[in-house]
Specification:
Blueprint lengths: L8 E6 L4 H10 L5 E7 L9 H4 L10 H4 L3 E2 L9 E4 L3 H13 L3 E4 L24 H9 L4 E4 L3 H17 L1 E10 L11 H4 L10 H13 L1 E3 L2 E3 L4 E8 L6 E9 L5 H9 L4 H4 L10 E4 L7 H4 L2 H4 L2 E9 L3 E8 L3 H17 L6
Helix pairs in contact: 1-13, 6-8
The chain binds NADP nicotinamide-adenine-dinucleotide phosphate (NAP).
C-alpha cells in the first residue's frame, strides 16, 4: 500500500450512493491528494455503473470520473489504502473493522465506533491531538490500519463553537435545542407527509449522542484514556422541514463573565491546526459570526466557506446561563463528509496515513 511521488492516493467510499456518500463523491472530485477509485454500496447495486446505482440528488453534476466506476459490494477485495465510510450504523461494525485489520486507514461517519476507548472522535480544529490514540488502538487490536471517527452532525457544529469558548473562558454548563434538517436522516428519510408543515420533537438516540460525543471531543486524552470534559450538558433535538443545514440554539455558562464583544472576538479569531497547515478542505474561518439579528439561516448561511464553517449569530446575554447564541452548519458537508476528508488530510499532513 505504498504511495509514491505526487500520485493521488486512491480512496474507496463505502455507502457511496447515500446522502453522505454522494457528498464524499462531490467533495473528492479534483481533490489534490485523494482520488475516488472504488465505490461500494449494498449488494442491490453490485456491478452497475455508479451513474445507474446512485439516484444523484446534489445540484452539482455527478462527476464523470466516478459515473462509470462499477459498484462493488462489501465482500470485494478493495485496492484503496484509504477508505471513507458512510454506512448505516447497523452494518458498520464488521465491515469497518475488517478494513482496519487489512491495513487501511478508515475514516467513518457512522456512530458504531465513536465512543470506543481507543477510537479518536475528531474535529480537526478541536482535538487533533486525540489522533494519537490510534497507536493504542493498533496495539489493542493488532491492526496495521485504524479507524478514526467523526461525530454526529449536530455535535460537530456545537463543539466547533464551544471549543474557542472553552479555551478562553472555561465552560461549566451547556443547554442546546436543535432544529435539524431532513437530509440528516439520509434518503428518503422522514416521509414527506410527516414532515411538511410539521416539527418532530424526537430523533432517536440523538440527544444522548450530542452529550456524550461533545464531552469526549472537548475532553482530553490522558495517555491511553479519554477524560470527558467536566461540564453539565443537556440537549433537545428536533427534526424540521429544512433540506440541509442544522440550526442549534445554545445557552452556555462560562467559567468567567466576559463582555459580548469579547466573546464575538474569540469566535472570529478562532484558528487551529488545519488553518496552520493550510489543508485543502480547511475553511479559512472555521467560525463565521453574523451580526444581523435574523441570521444565521439555513438557506442563506449553510454554504459559508464551501459548507465547512459553523456560522454563529445572535450572540447575547442569557438570563439563565449567562451567554446564548445560535450556531448553524451544513450537516452533510462539515457535519459529515467534509469533516471526514479534513480529518484524513490532517492525518496525511501529519504523516499518520499508512500510505
Ligand atoms: P443513506 O442516505 O441512507 O445511505 C446509506 C448508504 O449505505 C447507501 O449507500 C446504501 O447503499 C448503503 N446501505 C444501506 N443499507 C445497507 C446494508 N444493509 N448493507 C450495506 N450497505 C447498505 O444514509 P446517510 O444519511 O448517507 O448516512 C450514512 C451514515 O452517515 C449513517 O451512519 C449516518 O448516521 C451518518 N451520518 C449522516 C449524516 C447526515 O447528515 N445524513 C451526518 C453525519 C453522519 P444502497 O444505495 O446500495 O442501498
Amino acid at each position: 500500500m505504498a504511495n509514491s511521488g505526487n500520485k493521488r492516493i486512491p480512496v474507496a467510499v463505502l455507502g457511496a450512493t447515500g446522502s453522505v456518500g454522494q457528498r464524499f463523491i462531490e467533495l473528492l472530485t479534483d481533490h489534490p491528494w485523494f482520488e475516488v477509485a472504488e465505490v461500494v454500496a449494498s449488494d442491490r447495486n453490485v456491478g452497475k455503473p455508479y451513474r445507474e446505482a446512485a439516484a444523484w440528488r446534489l445540484s452539482a453534476d455527478m462527476p464523470e470520473s466516478v459515473a462509470s466506476l462499477p459498484m462493488l459490494d462489501y465482500s470485494a477485495d478493495l485496492q484503496s489504502p484509504l477508505v471513507f465510510s458512510a454506512l448505516p450504523g447497523e452494518v458498520a461494525e464488521e465491515i469497518e473493522q475488517r478494513m482496519a485489520r487489512e491495513g487501511r486507514a478508515l475514516f467513518t461517519n457512522t456512530s458504531f465506533h465513536r465512543m470506543d476507548d481507543d477510537v479518536p472522535l475528531l474535529i480537526a480544529e478541536v482535538n487533533p491531538d486525540h489522533a494519537k490514540v490510534i497507536e493504542v488502538q493498533r496495539k489493542n487490536r493488532g491492526w496495521s490500519g485504524f479507524i478514526a471517527a467523526n461525530s454526529n452532525c449536530s455535535a460537530m457544529h456545537l463543539v466547533l463553537a464551544l471549543k474557542p469558548l472553552q479555551d478562553a473562558f472555561g465552560i461549566d454548563a451547556v443547554s442546546v435545542v436543535t432544529l435539524q434538517a431532513v437530509s440528516g436522516a439520509g434518503y428518503p428519510g422522514v416521509p414527506s407527509l410527516d414532515m411538511i408543515d410539521n416539527v418532530i420533537p424526537f430523533i432517536s438516540t440523538e440527544e444522548e449522542k450530542m452529550v456524550i460525543e461533545s464531552k469526549k471531543m472537548l475532553g482530553r486524552l490522558d495517555g491511553a484514556t479519554f477524560v470527558p470534559a467536566n461540564m453539565v450538558m443537556t440537549a433537545h433535538c428536533n427534526r424540521v422541514p429544512v433540506r440541509d443545514g442544522h440550526t442549534e440554539c445554545a445557552s452556555v455558562r462560562l467559567g468567567s463573565n466576559p463582555e459580548i464583544e469579547e466573546v464575538i472576538a474569540v469566535f472570529e479569531n478562532f484558528r487551529a491546526r488545519p488553518q496552520e497547515l493550510k489543508l485543502p478542505s480547511a475553511p479559512e474561518r472555521p467560525i463565521v459570526v453574523r451580526r444581523e439579528n435574523n441570521r444565521p439561516q439555513p438557506v442563506l448561511d449553510r454554504d459559508t466557506e464551501r459548507g465547512m464553517a459553523s456560522v454563529v449569530g445572535r450572540v447575547r446575554p442569557c438570563e439563565l446561563l449567562g451567554l446564548k447564541f445560535v450556531v448553524l452548519g451544513h450537516n452533510t458537508i462539515r457535519g459529515a463528509a467534509g469533516a471526514s476528508i479534513l480529518n484524513a488530510e490532517l492525518f496525511h499532513a501529519e504523516g499518520l496515513l499508512p500510505v
